[in-house]
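agent: user wants the structure for Ice-binding protein C-terminal domain-containing protein from Noviherbaspirillum autotrophicum. delegating to structure tool.
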Amino acid sequence: MKKFMLVLSLLLGLQTAHAALVAEDYSSVGDGLITLDTESGLEWLDFTATRGLTVSQVLSGMGGYSATFRYATRSEIQELLAHAGFSTLNTYAPEYVTLGQAFNNLFNSNGSACGGSLPWACALSISPDTQHLDLINVGVSLTEGGAFLFPNYAPTDYQHEWYGSALVRVDNNGAVVPEPSAILLLGIGLLALAAKRQQRQG
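agent: tool returned. relaying tokens verbatim.
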């Protein structure tokens, strides 16, 4: 019984587990141009890979990414930012400094930040109405950090040296982390079967 309670406690601890954002290589060892969201199974291309290109340039094949990547939807961007730990968007907060720095490290924006010397990751994506672009800014000021999503902010021909494109593709390896609740239910079921078998043998 003690063993059962110990294992159950460990399984309950999985409820607080979080999926991870993991840096991966794209075309060469150590380039770190991919960020895998293990919960959604989406691979995100580094924002700096398409920095300065317009949407039409990316879609026409400039950079060579349009064959395997597509523009992220607004909901996918919101999901990514939530998985990165930003529970509230479009606000500065001291507790977001570490998150902003970590996000920038993943998207290779540290040292080549948009908007100045402080680390900011900046990207654009096509709005749901297809007539505008959503802008994404994630980073830190001197004492605060934040993740900002500006819907329908710019025309589709918008171009700026600070902004890349928010491009995604589905992870080919299918590395999606199971929901903690699913793992918990599976574990409880296995424990129940083991307990029943032990009773029969006893």
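agent: one observation worth passing along. Residues 29 and 161 are 26 Å apart (CA to CA).
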